[in-house]
Design brief:
two-stranded antiparallel sheet; globular; mainly alpha; 15 helices; 1% strand
Length: 415
């Protein structure tokens, strides 16, 4: 029996492999859910992050690396599609750079919001305005909205972005500009890793051997950093580490799978055989992670820890994500299963918009409660474990559906 070719949705830009969108959608929904579970009283331990000094990981510690891996899978399709349409590598790289820096800016804004906002604007008002600025700058449709053209909308967004940057006040800081890159935030880490891997891909092209070597090099950099051997790069460490360390290796591992998937589609290799080969790839990544973890008695760098972005954590996370993708690939692209919840597809097509809408909605809840002088009902629902878990699931679903509705209205912030 010959398996049918993978289900692909042809768009105006790069083709979308449905199994990738569905896995990304499941990851985004899980991310939105566990982020809210963190505020639920008595939440189960397996839905919370492991402490920094504990060797191990929960499903919550898998959400971020899984997304990085999926970002990598998409890179050969997205950038390869631009190259096939005749864009020069320099022009494609400029596109990558602008997108990466946009993610870094968004990440820094969200991190500063978490460190507290005081002054002229309250925290929820500042968060709402910052999100609106991001949507105006990076989320407006090419045709604009109504009679207002895109350049005017983007100009208004830049002005609003400048205003929220200058209006931000932290009670522990002084100066006219108090935004600080305490760390890059989730979006910033994605941005730096995306920039590094996209650059490697544009230089190497669809060459699996070079990508595999880059994965090994990135993990070597991560191990050297953990061993304290990169003191000469201390000033650049905040950039170098996500650029080519464990986070970069996670994206590279996904990019390698993406290149192999492209070849499978072009050569029309047996889908079953390809799935078996990718399971072998996942097994190899997992075995490497487990072997390195066995050395944790020699050095703390060999524990599995998301907060420290250790090499075993990166390898095991890559293995688990690769295995999960193979399972979805078999169900969707080989067996033709299509009865997935619609929210999975919506989240997979709008991951960044969904990520931005979550704190936006929470700020609206908080603002509404403060305006009427009442209790924040959403927070109150988190005081009971069972109700809090249901609340978190409903919130995740609501955010995804809202982002899907916004996309139908022309709002789309793409990774």
């Amino acid at each position: 029996m010959t398996a049918s070719p993978p289900a692909i949705s042809e768009g105006k830009s790069a083709p979308r492999v449905l199994s990738i969108d569905l896995l990304r959608g499941a990851d985004v929904l899980l991310m939105l859910f566990v982020n809210e579970v963190a505020g639920v009283s008595g939440a189960p331990a397996f839905l919370l992050h492991k402490p920094s000094d504990v060797d191990g990981m929960t499903i919550t510690d898998l959400v971020f690396p899984a997304f990085l891996f999926i970002v990598g899978i998409v890179i050969p399709f997205a950038l390869g599609g631009r190259l096939r349409r005749g864009e020069t590598r320099g022009r494609v790289w400029r596109h990558v750079l602008i997108r990466a820096l946009a993610l870094v800016v968004m990440g820094v804004l969200m991190v500063n919001a978490e460190h507290g906002v005081s002054g002229v604007l309250s925290a929820p008002v500042w968060n709402v305005l910052a999100t609106l600025a991001i949507l105006l700058v990076w989320g407006t449709p090419e045709s604009g909205w109504g009679k207002v053209r895109k350049p005017w909308l983007r100009g208004a967004g830049l002005a609003l972005l400048l205003f929220v940057a200058l209006a931000y006040r932290n009670p522990e800081l002084t100066g006219w500009l108090q935004l600080r890159p305490y760390w890059w935030g989730i979006l910033g880490l994605i941005g730096w890793a995306y920039l590094g891997v996209a650059t490697v891909y544009l230089l190497a092209g669809d060459r699996p051997a070079i990508l595999a070597g880059a994965i090994a090099l990135s993990y070597c950099v991560a191990l050297a950093d953990a061993a304290g051997s990169m003191l000469w790069l201390q000033a650049l460490r905040p950039i170098v580490r996500p650029f080519i360390g464990t986070h970069g290796a996670l994206v590279l591992a996904g990019a390698l799978l993406g290149v192999l998937l492209k070849r499978q589609l072009q050569d029309r290799e047996s889908a079953w055989r390809f799935a078996a080969r990718m399971l072998g790839y996942a097994a190899a990544l997992g075995a490497a992670g487990v072997l390195l973890r066995s050395l944790n008695g020699l050095n703390p760098a060999f524990i599995i820890s998301k907060n420290h972005a250790t090499v075993p954590w990166g390898l095991v996370s890559s293995a688990l994500t690769c295995g999960a993708w193979v399972a979805v690939f078999v169900l969707v692209d080989i067996l033709g299963y299509r009865r997935w919840p619609r929210s999975f597809a919506i989240a997979g097509e709008n991951p960044l918009l969904a990520y931005l809408m979550a704190p936006f909605l929470l700020s609206l809840f908080e603002l509404s409660a403060s305006l009427v002088g009442g209790t924040n009902v959403y927070e109150a629902l988190g005081q009971t474990t069972a109700i809090g878990l249901v609340r978190s699931a409903v919130f995740a679903w609501l955010v995804v559906r809202l982002s899907g509705w916004m996309r139908t209205r022309g709002v789309s912030v793409q990774l």
